[in-house]
Structures are given as structure tokens and as C-alpha cells.
Design goal:
- By secondary structure, the protein is α+β, with helices and mostly antiparallel strands.
- The protein has one domain: Heat Shock Protein 90, CATH 3.30.565.
- Helices cover 35% and strands 24% of the residues.
- It has a five-stranded mixed β-sheet with strand order 1-2-3-5-4, covered by helices on one side.
- Strand 4 and strand 5 form a beta hairpin.
- The protein is globular, with a radius of gyration of 15 Å.
- About 5% of the residues have low confidence.
């Protein structure tokens, strides 16, 4: 039931829980820990300020990537890392040491498509690195739009 609620909640862009991104990532990891025996490490470094609407897309990607790792990876450990990058950008990584995504299944699932659509909506880049028996890493890189001075 918990997993179903989390999945349904992740489908609702713009309906982010109240609180900042770090707090929501912490709650997301805590919830996932209740559904698995796999250790989940969460590392949150300093985060940049986010523009309106970006937070819910980042959280949705984190929730989906973490849920996929818990459900499908058969991992021995999972690590979620969120941090500011140079020039006030943002990087989110969800990595596991599980079985990887089979070539014939890669891109076939709704979750992978959903994460890509969320990244596209905020102008981010989503990269998925996977190999058989070597795990999977989902990486979101986001940089805020460049500040431009309006012309008179």
C-alpha cells in the first residue's frame, strides 16, 4: 500500500509535498527503507536554489529511480546523492549494485519514460548507466536557465 501511494503521488507533477528538496529526499529514502532490507545511503550536500516547479520534477525522478532500484535491481546496496554543482547547478544520482537493466527492457518501462519526461520539462539531462550484474545509475543534471537582462 505504501509503495502504491508513493507511485501514484510521483505521477502528480506540481503536487510536491511541503518542505524543501533535502527534507523531501530524506522522507523519500526513509519511506523506501521501510519497504526493503537493502541498505539505502542518502547523501545530501549543499543544494542550489530551485526555480518554481523544478522541485516536484526532481523529487519525482528521485522517487521513481529509488522505487525501481528497490523493486527491480536485486541490489545489495543503493546510494542516493544530491548536490549542487559548479555554477549553481544540481546533480542527483541514484545508484545500485544490482543486476542492471536488460538490453531488451531498457527504455520499455513507464518509469524510465516518466523520468525522461520530467527531466525534459525542467531542461535537465537524464543519463542512465547500466550493465549486466554491475548495477544501474540514474543521473539527473540540471542547470537553471541563464539569467538574461530584459531588453527595454
Amino acid at each position: 500500500m505504501i509503495e502504491a501511494r508513493r507511485s501514484v503521488g510521483a505521477l502528480r507533477p506540481g503536487q510536491a509535498e511541503s518542505g524543501d528538496v533535502a527534507a523531501i529526499l530524506q522522507r523519500t529514502a526513509d519511506l523506501a527503507r521501510r519497504t526493503t532490507d537493502v541498505p539505502i545511503e542518502l547523501v545530501i550536500d549543499e543544494l542550489p536554489p530551485f526555480t518554481t516547479g523544478v522541485e516536484s520534477e526532481i523529487i519525482g525522478i528521485a522517487q521513481e529511480a529509488l522505487a525501481n532500484a528497490v523493486r527491480h535491481a536485486r541490489a545489495k546496496r543503493i546510494k542516493v546523492h544530491a548536490a549542487a554543482t559548479r555554477n549553481v547547478g544540481f546533480r542527483l544520482s541514484v545508484a545500485d549494485d544490482g543486476r542492471g537493466i536488460a538490453k531488451e527492457r531498457f527504455g520499455a518501462g513507464f518509469g524510465l519514460t516518466s523520468m525522461q519526461e520530467r527531466a525534459d520539462r525542467i531542461g535537465g539531462s537524464l543519463t542512465i548507466v547500466t550493465a549486466p550484474r554491475a548495477g544501474t545509475e540514474v543521473v539527473l543534471a540540471w542547470e537553471p536557465p541563464a539569467f538574461t537582462i530584459p531588453t527595454p
